[in-house]
């Protein structure tokens, strides 16, 4: 059961992207999915690490190219640290090899930024299989 279906608390998601406009776009699209979502933003790897260690998130939307590291290295670091939060990778590149590498590293989904829409992000949220208690 999703948080929306069960009337529970909104999903807490972290959007990690160095571009403010892109973070705002992801937030707008998430809000338009019809699923209650509380969005927090991080500008880069270090900011995201701080937020992830300080609080619990139901999912992370992570840009592939960040100024202080790349999304793939960050994703591997999360997994190596034992953090199992579902991660949806966002990228400006539509490269199937990159997508395969990201999924192999533990990404739940991969969304080219050119494909961002409420419908596409709704599919990503559903792919995470997050239910109302925040478990995947």
What does this entry show, briefly?
This protein is α/β, with parallel strands linked by helices and 136 residues long. It has six helices and seven strands.
Model description:
The protein has helices at residues 3-6, 20-31, 45-54, 71-80, 96-104, 118-128; strands at residues 11-16, 37-42, 59-63, 65-66, 69-70, 87-91, 109-112. The termini are close together. It contains six helices and seven strands, in the order H-E-H-E-H-E-E-E-H-E-H-E-H. The strands form two sheets. Strands 2-1-3-6-7 form a five-stranded parallel beta sheet, sandwiched between helices. It has a single domain (3-128), classed as Rossmann fold (3-Layer(aba) Sandwich). 41% of the residues lie in helices and 22% in strands. The longest helix is centred in the first third of the chain and has 12 residues, at 20-31. Mean pLDDT is 85; it is low at 1-6 and 131-136. It has 136 residues and is α/β, with parallel strands linked by helices. The chain is globular, with a radius of gyration of 14 Å.
Secondary structure topology:
Layout: H1 3-6, E1 11-16, H2 20-31, E2 37-42, H3 45-54, E3 59-63, E4 65-66, E5 69-70, H4 71-80, E6 87-91, H5 96-104, E7 109-112, H6 118-128
**Number of structural domains:** 1
Based on Cα principal axes, name the global outline: globular
Which residue ranges are poorly predicted, with pLDDT under 50 across at least 5 consecutive positions?
1-6, 131-136
Order of strands, widest sheet: 2-1-3-6-7
Helical content stands at 40-55%
Determine and state the CATH class. Alpha Beta
Structural class determined from secondary elements: alpha/beta
Strand count, sense and barrel status of the largest sheet are: 5 strands, parallel
